[in-house]
Amino acid sequence: MDKGRILIVDDDPIVRDVLYDILSNVGGYRADLAFDGVDGLEKLKRQEYDIIFTDLTMPRMNGMDFLKETQRMNFGIPVVVITGFSSIDNAVNAMREGAKDFITKPFRIDTVLTVASKILGERRLLNRISRHDDIESTVGKLNSELFKSLHEIGILQSISNEIDGIFSNREIYEKLVEMVSRLFMVREASFGIVENGEIKIEAGIGTTARTRSISGTIFERVVSSKSYYIALPGEINPHDGTALAFPFFSIPLTMNDEVFGILSISSKADGTAFTDYEISLALTFAKKAAMRIENNALYEVFYGNLINTLKSLVISIEARDIYTRNHSERVAAYALQVAEVMGLSSDDKEIIRFGGYLHDIGKIGVRDTVLLKPSKLTDEEFIEIRLHPVIGDNIIKPIKFFPRERELIRHHHERFDGKGYPDGLAGERIPLVVRIMNVVDTFDAMTTSRPYRTARTHEQAVEELIRCSDSQFDGVIVNAFLQTPAGRGASLGS
Ligand SMILES: [Fe+2]
Questions:
Q1: 433 Cα–ligand 1 center, Å
Q2: What is the pTM for the complete model shown?
Q3: Which CATH number, 3.30.1360.40, 3.30.450.40, 3.30.420.10, 3.40.50.300, labels domain 169-298?
């Protein structure tokens, strides 16, 4: 039986060949190839097709223009667009222009085949119905239902792709509002967190409201019923207490069956009411976002626990050795002062704060007799203690979240001139935050008493840092350190 004929339009030979293989060799369809939109239109004039798969970015005539042209010329052939990594803009725009569906690169064989067979199935059904001399409206209605469900599947896939990559709740809130306002073409949309009888607007378009009591408003109703509510014109706008001029759609976002936020959309650009289809799409959308936010919350709890565990490890190491007690905390504090003077980003500061605290974590693998030895170390003992950066790196390695902290732990005994350990990195091959650690770690060691020597004075330590500028240390960082409160002689906390 003839499974159908498919036209593949793509300028990228690899994509074209892969699609051809999937559809023709695996799927058993007859497939033809076109190199771009112009070539595609030529093929359409000469041959009938059941589906078109087209890329969007192509020379001569891009996919969007090609799609518009196929619609304008009324070929009536369903078009599936191929987009690069998850772009809701491309996908939604193409759907608006009449595309039936889209697939994202890199695509899976089963996705391509499912899309093709679904569309061909619907096309056959529609052909059969129209042959049966049925009333035109039935066909039209069925067609638009099918279009809607496809449209919905496509949009939901994009939503999950877009939201899944975001780990900051604030960004999710902003994305949510931006996406609903685009999807439903509304002039007003907002997302607020509900807490202690108040709603705090975290992201909004077309609304300036910030924190308000929800008492007596439709928001209160949404929170207590835990279900959505569409207020009609004339009801009270919960943001500003005025009478609503447009329908106002509020959807609760729940976590553990409690409402924690409300997504509101209002003022559709075409002034119409929300349809059943739009309501169900918005509800699914809100549910998806709530799940993402819940995942983030779980992740934060997990991350917090992990950090506390690592910190207690450091405390247990320092507890063994009274001479280095609070060393890690001081080093992190000094390094942050340098970061401040150098104007480093908040990301860098976070690496310094946490990595600085953990830098000597590998000492947990060094024997007490070596770590606490009150006299000079033998060569062998010296080798053992010099292993601690590598041991620390190995402790952190299984935890995939901390790649830059790992660098700091592994390289905090490297020297600017390349004579340090364990890898002998030199100059700017040592990351900036690590070069900062090199300076402040040594400074703290010099100004703290050890069993075998008393602490140097602040002046002596500073002199030594300056003497070793551009050999052991990066001179730029020594300079920056000298401008910090600690570098100028202030003790921590003063
Ligand atoms: Fe160390």
A1: 15
A2: 0.48
A3: 3.30.450.40
